[in-house]
Amino acid sequence: MAVETVRINNSGYRVKHGLLRRITPLTEHEKLFEIMLPEGESLDHDPGQFVQVSLFGVGEAPISICSSPTKREAFEICVRQSGRVTTAIHKLHEGDIVGIRGPFGIGFPVLPLEGNDVLLVAGGLGIAPLRSLINYIIDNRRDFGKVDILLGCRDPESMLFSSEIGHWQKRIDLNFCCSVDHAAPEWAGNVGVITSLIPGVNLHPLKTFVVVCGPPVMYRFVIEELLKKGIPERQIFLSLERHMKCGLGKCGHCQIDNIYCCQDGPVFSYQKLKNIKGAI
Ligand SMILES: Cc1cc2nc3c(=O)[nH]c(=O)nc-3n(C[C@H](O)[C@H](O)[C@H](O)COP(=O)(O)OP(=O)(O)OC[C@H]3O[C@@H](n4cnc5c(N)ncnc54)[C@H](O)[C@@H]3O)c2cc1C
Ligand code: FES
């Protein structure tokens, strides 16, 4: 085989065939897709990494892997119907094939988290990549200290993974708290923005790592609350969403200043991002 062919086969350019083994509607706008690669192929991802999902003749979109690397036989993605590619993905059926490139990027800092307390803050669709980390932590629970999960949603109907969240809520080794922006009177949980949950979390700032994932508008306010709690900037990690094409640090679509979100991120420490204009 020519050297160039070997390089392409092992690179992020190569499209693998992903079989849609199971499709589960989660809400009106989001579906969960369980994908299997051909025999002998595995994804080997870290929590927080993403894949490029393509449909022939339609296009390609970056989507976070939402299952834990501890789930070996298949992986999962949660897709919100928002435009051309994601609408076409929503029309697919079990047994159909999608193209998969990746995994790409630098995910959540799993090793530094080990032995420490972890606070996970998710807004809306941000729970999808965080679910990969949450289930990884659950599967390796002894490696981590106290775990707090804060989730903010628009309303109870838009909450993703609600049945799985029911299981997380029952665990005594996880503290889960959810707040919604709007709710009917029968909603028994918190109402208000996600930042309102942070003051109530009991944490030791120097041994707590925080991972935040959600819409960009949330970041500034969440960081403000975390800094008030005394969490060091180097212990706050954020996942950035930027328009992406190649996923390989080549096209420049995801560039902010001198960083490429697709390769240098999407997960960055606040210490790194705070000096990069336009990052948050
Ligand atoms: C690292 C990363 C991880 C992501 N993970 C997920 C995920 O787990 N689930 C999911 O549903 N979506 C995720 N997204 C967003 C997803 O990639 C976009 O919604 C998708 O590319 C839109 O493609 P489309 O052809 O359906 O929409 P288009 O027709 O291209 O656009 C529809 C709308 O979506 C906006 N849009 C397009 N791309 C992005 C983007 N990258 N970020 C924000 N807005 C965008 C457009 O501006 C437009 O308003 C992720 C994006 C990135 C960069
Ligand atoms: S998506 Fe092309 S450089 Fe990042």
Please provide a written account of the structure.
The chain is an alpha/beta fold. The chain folds into two domains: 3-104, Translation factors (Elongation Factor Tu (Ef-tu), domain 3); 110-239, 3-Layer(aba) Sandwich (Rossmann fold). It contains eight helices and 15 strands. It has helices at residues 3-9, 84-90, 110-113, 127-139, 162-170, 216-228, 261-264, 270-273, and strands at residues 16-25, 30-36, 50-55, 59-64, 75-80, 97-104, 117-123, 147-153, 175-180, 190-191, 208-213, 236-239, 255-256, 259-260, 267-269. The strands form three sheets. It has a seven-stranded mixed beta sheet, sandwiched between helices. Helix 4 (127-139) links the parallel strand 7 and strand 8. The longest helix is centred in the middle third of the chain and has 13 residues, at 127-139. The protein starts with a helix and ends in a 7-residue tail after the last helix. The relative contact order is 0.13.
Task: Note the total helix count.
Answer: 8
Oligomer: single chain
Mean pLDDT: 93
Beta content: 25-35%
Question: Which regions contain 5 or more consecutive residues with pLDDT less than 50?
Answer: none
Q: How many domains make up the 3D coordinates?
A: 2
Sheet with the most strands, sense and barrel status: 7 strands, mixed
Give the terminus-to-terminus CA distance: 46 Å
Which fold does the CATH topology of the largest domain refer to?
A: Rossmann fold
Rg on CA atoms, Å: 19 Å
Coarse structural class:
alpha/beta
Hetero compounds: flavin-adenine dinucleotide, FE2/S2 (inorganic) cluster
Q: Please count the beta strands (DSSP E, at least 2 residues each).
A: 15
Amount of helix: 10-25%
What would CATH call the architecture of the largest domain? 3-Layer(aba) Sandwich
Question: What is the name of the CATH class of the largest domain?
Answer: Alpha Beta
Order of helices and strands: HEEEEEHEHEHEHEEEHEEEHEH
* Widest sheet, order of strands: 10-9-8-7-11-12-15
The outline comes out as globular
Looking at this structure, what is the CATH superfamily of the largest domain?
A: Nucleotide-binding domain of ferredoxin-NADP reductase (FNR) module
